Amino acid sequence: METTKCLIIGSGPAGYTAAIYASRADLKPIVYQGMEPGGQLTTTTEIDNFPGYPEGVEGPKMMEDLQKQAERFGADIRWGMVSEIDTSERPFRVKIDDGTELLAETVIVATGATAKYLGLESEQKFKGGGVSACATCDGFFYKGKDVAVVGGGDTAAEEATYLANLCRKVYLIHRRDQLRASKAMQNKVLNTDNIEVLWNHEVKEIVGVEQGFTKALNGAVLVNNKTGEEKKIDIEGFFVAIGHKPNTDLFFGKLDMDETGYLVTQPDSTATNVPGIFAAGDVQDKHFRQAITAAGTGAMAAIEAERFLG
Questions:
Q1: Domain count along the chain
Q2: Identified catalytic residue from 6, 137, 146, 285
């Protein structure tokens, strides 16, 4: 059976950065890319806030660059998904979806998280063309424009107040008549002049124009769920802030998680509750969810794996 000093599960900024560091430490890591090679950034058109790209870079291109850098140092990057892992003893026995089995001395989990969307066909159509799940990532592109945020929790409130500093107007669309956000965040939203809360509204459709491969969102059709009345708002950006789901199903009952499924790591560390297993990126970070912070924890995980092996 094949063995490896370091198995990396996932291939976003965290996984590829971990692969770069682990390869340079001569751990000869094996990386399984997972269902979405390159992670969430492969669906992002342009990234302007990752250091080293002064002119910006498209998400797929950046992931390609990170993969090439990891391969340059000898990382063995493979297509496939981990389907099963036994965390009860080291080396950890791992099964891949193609039937391959291997033993890993250490494991770095970098499976990321998936943004929750409303499930509208038009929403998917304009992803990357006006629809986003990250105001911190994409808000800059809508400076001085009108945008909307959908959601009612702390994340939605934070996204709306962040965008209010950049945009001319922010609509906060919420299906209920009161926010679920903390009182402090509610007060921020309700006391920000250019945020308008649209209570009891749900999104029926995202609308825009399509010219070839170019898509530009220009509005959203809403329905008042009390009266049934429809209205259209004119916007250029639409931010979905209804939460993320960490990709941790594989580790239920095997690694410690919080109540929402994010892996729990030790303070100032990427170590999980199982010695030899580390977690990096959005799979353990529900606060920042940025490419640069994911890359940072990927580096930490590889360094900790190296030190663990002695």
A1: 2
A2: 137
